[in-house]
Fold these 2 entries.
Entry 1:
Amino acid sequence: MNPRQVVDYMMEKDYFSQFLGIKIIDIKENYALIEMEITKQMLNGLGTVHGGVTFAFADSAFAFSSNNDGNAAVALSVTINFTKAGREGDIFRAESVLINDTRKTAIYDIKISNQNNDLVAKFVGTVYKIGKKVTELLI
């Protein structure tokens, strides 16, 4: 399967990403660009996007980019820095890019921005390559 087919296969079974309304914009090997509209159900008590929503959105981009070569990888470590509050109606985009690759681990840089291209959050994640195919795990 090519990278887009792998992500389509994953997305079909990724009920949480579906629940968030995530749309796949572009997929290349070790790269993902996704989009999501912020709804009122995603807001916290201060009227801004809940940090967990932003984290989950970035995590989906991370998963789609780190698994789209067909080899399964799982999160080992992640960090996120929130830089701008999101609001209802915003369109978030997450772009995940491979920045380091070894035999057993890889590091990805994920930038989350809004419709004005303002940086909303910066997420860096390390995956562990588990030695199985994505299709072996998602049955």
Entry 2:
Amino acid sequence: MTSRVRDAGQNTGVAPEFTVDPAMLDAISPSGDRGGIVLGSGLKGEPLTISALRSTPTRIVLVGGLYLARQVAMRAMAVGAWVVVATGRPTEWQVLARAAGSSGNDGRPSPLVQIRRLSPVELPRPSEDAPLLVVTDGGPTPQDLFPPRSPWQTTVYVLPYLHPQAGATANAADLVLMQRLPAGQAELAARIWRLPPQMMRQLTTLKDDQVVALGRNLWRPLRLVTTGKEQQLLGPVRRGD
């Protein structure tokens, strides 16, 4: 797995540096590692980073609540990514536009964030200096409206719960982030990803601030960490919305 979780300080891969507007950093104040996204901390409190914005097309599946999805999007913004959200609940995503602020003295919204309906639109052209994160928030069986086809594009699929028809999307993901699942959902996850019983049980006992990062040869429980500025925008860490 190339889009992997890595411990800060370990030379397990290099994510690029992006130019970030100082006002954006001030609004979100995340911690990052060479352009990677710090997702949370390990059992010993060490920061864990994902290289989600890469020179190859990337798919990430999030199984859980809006809190996790919006936090990932905000941290992508903070390392210089364009963020396009295709959603059937646009009011729930306006917090990203508020976090991005305006683009200048004219008061227009920042072009870094676009909140769209669930229909195909022309996307910004991603590049190494301006990677693109596309969030598809289309329910448990999302349409693949914006599959990642070019370098520096990452598509995130937000699944409020696992559905049997989402198996193809889940299996195509480079990285899966799962919050706590009820027993039936954990059993489905075990079938999709061929998880042993102990991993299946762990998915049912995660706390509200815990996530499992899953990928090829990867199973990494972690704890979500929220900055003070993020708490002002998103509220406390939670499992659902």
